[in-house]
């Protein structure tokens, strides 16, 4: 009977191997049952089935721990066919079916007893639940995506003990709670402390940080309150000392005082007397202290002679971009008269190889004139900051920063530069207002004398006025240390004659003719 059963199992195994080979999965090894039967230190018999790993089982009677070896990797020895014939039935004594006591030396445990996952024994015919999966790497567990809706498997039936149950009051149970096995398909994650635990562990550092924040906040609030207390005094000092310094031509000192006064006005949100006066004076002082180092004519000449765009861009950004210019000129076109943009009579002229190099001021998007468009024929005096120099079909154009425009209202500061303001008769009217009559004889219209092309360089205003008479119009521009005054005459056949006077602000000498140009 046993032999026939072995042959049947061999046939099934051979069939299983052939089936797996056809599917390409390789050979399989059927699971072989290896039961165990051991006794606890108290003598109670425990039966079950060996698994691939060791088992730490607690006796259901006394709760003592029993260690069961795993399955043997060696095949079971064959059962001899003559076993029944070799053992005479009468010669054998009574069979001792008692359990074999554990007599091997058990080494000292290296793991705490409560850390051992104790299992309950089962009967030989039942399957023991598989041991829990080993803990994986936390990083691998964190990035794994496992379904959360895996149903919990029903608990395996617990094996009943072979002996009769012990009375409850016989001995106190030493059974300890077993950790619940992880659900199938779930990876156990390491315990992470909560936010409250982390805060409690770092309480000293948090207390120190809170004290530091409170201290810094107190110091900042004290400084702010002290500064706010000083704001009215700063505004008053700007009005009493900064504005007079601007009128005297002490631009550095005026800018220092008025800048702080303007910051105080902004901090007080303008709720103080003379706020707008201080702001306007501060804007004008900022124009005077940041004038370009070279005249516009010299910048144009250098730009026209530079062929390397990258070299010029680096030079312009380093020396001229964002620096201020000061202009006084007559408005020749305005949106109020139907023209597209504002134009002034000032032309930037430099000597060229064949003809003069010409540039104009581009006021497209210039918000100072968009907010208050000047009228044609009015004289405007303003400051602005350079943005770029660009080429156009008939020459060049100087672009201005759209938000940098400032009307010049402190005429004494202009006189400190060396030129006489155009509207000396009435200084209280707006800067873009054209006066009904101008007492300055230089701007009175007169009949033109014949144009003299030679002999003008180095002559003063009076000498040119004696030869050519009063100009049709004129304009001015200022740079650091010098300013230019341009007289404009109407020449024959509609041409325009430009005479540029240059005067140094550090010298008291008169302005003399630097260049003269004729444009059609």
Rounded to an integer in angstroms, the radius of gyration calculated over CA atoms is 53 Å
* Broad structural category: alpha+beta
Ends distance:
130 Å
Number of strands: 15
How confident is the prediction overall: mean pLDDT?
76
Shape: elongated
Largest β-sheet summary: 11 strands, mixed
What is the number of helices? 12
Poorly predicted segments: 159-165, 423-453
Percent range for helical residues?
25-40%
The share of residues in extended strands comes to 15-25%
Name the helix and strand elements from N-terminus to C-terminus, one letter apiece.
HEEEEHHHHHHHHEEEEHEEEHHEEEE
Describe this structure in words.
This protein is α+β, with helices and mostly antiparallel strands and 520 residues long. Among the domains are: 221-289, no CATH class; 296-519, no CATH class. 30% of the residues lie in helices and 18% in strands. The protein has helices at 2-23, 83-86, 138-143, 195-201, 203-247, 251-267, 275-289, 296-305, 309-319, 367-371, 411-417, 461-468, and strands at 35-39, 45-49, 55-58, 65-68, 324-333, 343-344, 348-350, 357-362, 379-392, 395-400, 406-407, 473-479, 482-490, 496-504, 512-519. Strands 5, 6, 7, 8, 9, 10, 11, 12, 13, 14 and 15 form an eleven-stranded mixed sheet that branches. The chain has a two-stranded antiparallel sheet with strand order 1-2. Strands 3-4 form a two-stranded antiparallel ribbon. Helix 5 (203-247) crosses helix 6 (251-267) and helix 5 packs across helix 7 (275-289). 22% of the residues are buried. Residues 159-165 and 423-453 have low confidence and may be disordered.
């Amino acid at each position: 009977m046993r032999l026939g059963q072995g042959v049947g199992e061999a046939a099934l195994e051979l069939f299983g191997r052939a089936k797996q080979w056809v599917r390409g999965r390789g050979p399989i090894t059927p699971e072989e049952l290896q039961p165990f039967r051991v006794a606890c230190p108290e003598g109670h018999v425990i039966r079950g089935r060996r698994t691939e790993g060791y088992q730490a089982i607690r006796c259901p009677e006394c709760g003592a721990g029993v260690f069961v070896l795993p399955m043997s990797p060696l095949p079971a020895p064959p059962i001899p066919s003559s076993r029944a014939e070799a053992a005479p039935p009468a010669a054998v004594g009574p069979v001792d079916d008692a359990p074999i006591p554990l007599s091997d030396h058990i080494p000292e445990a290296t793991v705490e007893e409560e850390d051992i996952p104790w299992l309950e024994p089962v009967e030989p015919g039942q399957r023991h639940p598989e041991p829990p999966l080993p803990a994986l790497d936390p990083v691998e567990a964190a990035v794994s995506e496992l379904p959360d809706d895996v149903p919990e498997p029903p608990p395996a039936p617990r094996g009943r003990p072979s002996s009769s149950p012990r009375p409850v009051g016989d001995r106190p149970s030493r059974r300890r709670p077993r950790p619940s096995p992880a659900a199938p398909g779930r990876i156990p994650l390491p315990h992470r402390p909560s936010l409250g635990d982390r805060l409690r562990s770092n309480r000293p550092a948090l207390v120190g940080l809170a004290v530091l924040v409170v201290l810094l906040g107190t110091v900042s609030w004290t400084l702010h309150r002290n500064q706010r207390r000083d704001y009215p005094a700063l505004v008053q000092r700007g009005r009493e000392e900064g504005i007079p310094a601007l009128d005297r031509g002490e631009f550095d000192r005026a800018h220092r005082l008025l800048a702080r006064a303007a910051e105080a006005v902004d901090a007080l949100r303008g709720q103080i007397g003379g706020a707008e006066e201080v702001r306007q004076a501060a804007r004008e002082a900022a124009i005077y202290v940041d004038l370009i180092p070279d005249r516009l004519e010299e910048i144009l000449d250098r730009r026209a002679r530079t062929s390397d765009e990258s070299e010029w861009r680096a030079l312009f950004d380093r020396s001229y971009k964002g620096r201020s210019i000061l202009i006084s000129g007559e408005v020749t076109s305005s949106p109020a008269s139907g023209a597209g943009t504002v134009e002034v009579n000032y032309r930037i002229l430099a000597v060229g190889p064949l003809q003069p190099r010409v540039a104009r001021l581009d006021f497209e998007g210039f918000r100072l004139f968009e907010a208050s468009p000047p009228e044609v024929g009015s004289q405007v005096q303003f400051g602005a900051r350079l943005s770029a120099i660009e080429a156009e079909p008939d020459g060049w154009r100087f672009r201005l920063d759209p938000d940098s425009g400032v009307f010049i209202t402190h005429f004494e500061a202009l006189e400190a530069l060396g030129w006489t303001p155009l509207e000396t008769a009435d200084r209280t009217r707006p800067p873009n207002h054209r006066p009904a009559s101008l007492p300055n004889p230089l701007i009175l219209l007169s009949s033109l004398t014949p144009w003299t092309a030679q002999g003008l360089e180095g002559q003063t205003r009076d000498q040119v006025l004696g030869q050519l008479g009063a100009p049709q119009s004129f304009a001015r521009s200022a740079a650091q240390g010098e300013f230019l005054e341009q007289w404009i005459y109407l020449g024959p056949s509609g041409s325009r004659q430009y005479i540029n006077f240059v005067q140094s602000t550090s010298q008291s000498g008169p302005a003399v003719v630097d260049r003269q140009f004729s444009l059609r």
